Amino acid sequence: MSEADQLKALRVRIDNLDERILELISERARCAEEVARVKMAVLKPGETPVFYRPEREAWVLKHIMEINKGPLGNEEIARLFREIMSSCLALEHPLRVAYLGPEGTFTQAAALKHFGQAVISTPMAAIDEVFREVVSGAVNFGVVPVENSTEGAVNHTLDSFLEHDIVICGEVELRIHQHLLVGENTATDRITRIYSHAQSLAQCRKWLDAHYPNVERVAVSSNADAARRVKGEWNSAAIAGDMAAQLYGLSRLFEKIEDRPDNSTRFLIIGNQEVPPTGDDKTSAIVSMRNKPGALHELLMPFHENAIDLTRIETRPSRSGKWTYVFFIDFLGHHQDPLIKDVLEKIGQEAVALKVLGSYPKAVL
Ligand SMILES: C=C(O[C@@H]1C=C(C(=O)O)C=C[C@H]1O)C(=O)O
Fold first, then answer.
1. What is known about what this protein does (predicted)?
2. Relative to the CA of 86, which ligand 1 atom is closest?
3. What is the pLDDT, as a whole number, of residue 208?
4. Is 114 a domain residue?
5. I need a labelling partner for 233 at 20 to 30 A (CA). Which of 136, 256, 281, 346 fits?
């Protein structure tokens, strides 16, 4: 068979497969509509339906990854299913999600990675505003950064948990690639100023010291804001990610300039809805201990004794007394698991205050 005939035959096969895929996706979407009807039918007066089920979505993605035989990799296949679910959920009820904006930030990328493209996403100017939108019920969920593997905690986010009553419903991790971006009119050999968010400047500190030691580094409110500024200036560049580059039509003068190749940021999904256990969960809590010797030891012991994996501990000023602190802790398990319940009870006896911020499925993607 000639090359042309082979390609023709293969394309006919692909067309047939696409038609079958379309049929199956449509059938799946009709099932999701049916699920919505069932959820509505069992509502008692005054109850609001829960359309979005993160624990179920986590299971679907994990299951697909477990049975995937290739040739597409697990991440690739999960991304496709992520989008199918996102569209199915939007048929039931479109989700409204607020994120730390403006458009083009890594937080927006994290929101889309977690919820898929079919959500209605709204940028907010500050982390605190994301919290307030969720508390007021103006949106279903919020997405905020909480820690970066190079630069550590995002303190604004931790402090916001002290001020708002909110539930953590999920987490999402994003590999952060920073690029040096320039516009069409940038004189690339005469750059005198580089804009970026302080976190991003810090993530590229060594690279900047080596390549642009004498150039002014200007910290602005977001990477997207940095990219926007470069549009109007011939002598400046921005450090930002792909989304900001696309949004403002900038090109990459240098790619992946972050100092650490594994540079990642973890984001939290905040909402008003408790998430049931999946068997592979994480819990976040705030604990404030008495100001006495051995207080931290008392907090850590129950985890050690029960072999519970404490994945993170962060200290912040308590804001209710000088030199008093609260601990933000993350650990594996769900607060409804009997073992975790016991541990929390033990800690509660020693602590001045203990608040579980939420238990949620470990990031799948
Ligand atoms: C279909 C459901 O509703 C939503 C859509 C899902 C899907 O498309 O698979 C999964 C969970 C929910 O977020 C459900 O609850 O099963």
1. Catalyzes the Claisen rearrangement of chorismate to prephenate and the decarboxylation/dehydration of prephenate to phenylpyruvate.
2. 8
3. 97
4. yes
5. 256
**ipTM metric:** 0.97
Residue nearest to atom 5 of ligand 1 (CA): 89
> Is the residue at 344 inside a domain?
yes
Other Cβ atoms less than 10 A from the Cβ of 267: the count is: 28
Structure-token pair, residue 127: 């982390």
79 contacts: CB under 8 Å, gap ≥ 6 = 365
Mean pLDDT of 176-181: 97
Atom of ligand 1 nearest to the CA of 85: 8
Query: Is the pLDDT score of 115 beyond 80?
Result: yes
Entry pTM: 0.93
Q: What domain range is 212 assigned to? A: 179-262
pLDDT at 322 over 80: no
Residue 341 placed within a domain: yes
Atom of ligand 1 nearest to the CA of 60: 9
Residue 333 has pLDDT above 90, yes or no: yes
The answer to whether residues 212 and 237 belong to one domain is yes
**Encoded tokens for 299:** 């907090």
Residue 151 has what pLDDT? Answer: 86
Pocket test of ligand 1: the residue of 30, 89, 93, 115 to mutate, having most ligand atoms within 8 Å of its CB, is: 89
Residue located nearest, by CA, to atom 8 of ligand 1: 85
Tell me how far apart the alpha carbons of residues 78 and 295 are, in angstroms, rounded to a whole number. 43
Which residue from 25, 57, 84, 91 has its CB within 8 A of the most atoms of ligand 1, so it is best to mutate? 57
Q: Is 185 in a helix, a strand, or coil?
A: coil
- Residue 1 pLDDT level (bands cut at 50, 70, 90): confident
φ, ψ of residue 214 to 5 degrees: the values are -105, 10
Look up tokens 């499925």; give the residue: 361
- Statement to judge: residues 31 and 170 lie in one domain: yes
Number of domains in the chain: 3
Q: For residue 358, what are the β-bridge partners?
A: 284
Q: How far is CA 44 from CA 32, 41, 47, 49, 102, in A?
A: 21, 9, 6, 10, 39
Residue at 56 is within a domain? yes
When pLDDT is cut at 50, 70 and 90, the band that residue 47 belongs to is confident
Q: Which residues line ligand 1 (CB under 6 A)?
A: 32, 35, 51-53, 56-57, 60, 85, 88-89, 92
Distance in Å, CA 47 to ligand 1 centroid: 19
